[in-house]
Amino acid sequence: MSVNVALIGAGAMGGAIGTRLAETGNTLRVFDLDPEKVSALVAKGAISAASAAEAASASDYVITSLNAPQIVEKAVFGENGVADGARAGTLIIDMSSIDPGATKDLAAKAEARGLRWVDSPLSGGAPKALVGELTLMAGGSEKDVADAHNVLKFVSSNYTHMGPVGAGQTTKLINQVLCGLGFLAVAEATKLALDAGVDAAKIPTALKGGRADSAILQEYMPRFVSRDYRRTGRIDNMVKDLNGAQDLARKTHTAMPLTAVCAEVHRMLTAAGLGGEDQAALMEYFKGPDKEKFE
Asked: 172, 240, 287, 293: which one is catalytic?
């Protein structure tokens, strides 16, 4: 059964989510400050909205896919935002990656306006969104999380209710710790293999099914070897998420030494101007002074 949904934020991730929703026969209204991103989805069957309020006013569900809690707050509660147009009881599904505390504040503000809130950050990136195989971790009431699945089933193959509002975002931070460490470990191992004269391109096949195997190993070691830096994510987004994990660790008094090192490497690459590049560009950290500079 198709749904009537508004999408606020049509960047790399939002655009992929919107593409999948439109291609699976849903009615999709989209708003983004970048008209080119909106046009790309309109070409796939979406309806352009002049504001977030307009998109929400004609929709049963609203998905937000944005980069920071301040942006989410402005999109939902600012002038001509979602809250200005949404009907009472509308379910807002925030698929952004923001900190759990901000999520709880936003959900409370939405409740005061008669709106419902589910935080459902994701893992799998744009490639998995396009084929409906995202992994989603949801926070909210049991009823709202079940209702959100009426929309999210089109983009996900693994959907788990983690607890009350904010629990989804907490789980996403844990996911990002594991991913950040995984990317860095595979990049480091790739460099060792190359320096030792092993055909690193064969390693994913050689290790497939063993304890060292992972989705990151299978996808990214070949990309590290070939310096395939096509963009499916951003290093500076990982910095944001690792910062969030470290903030949470300070509150819980959790020691995270490996995460600290991983975050510093990502910060160094961002300071070097590579923040907008894909995680594959982690290989730049392992280049010596005699290597060709990144372009």
From this structure: 172
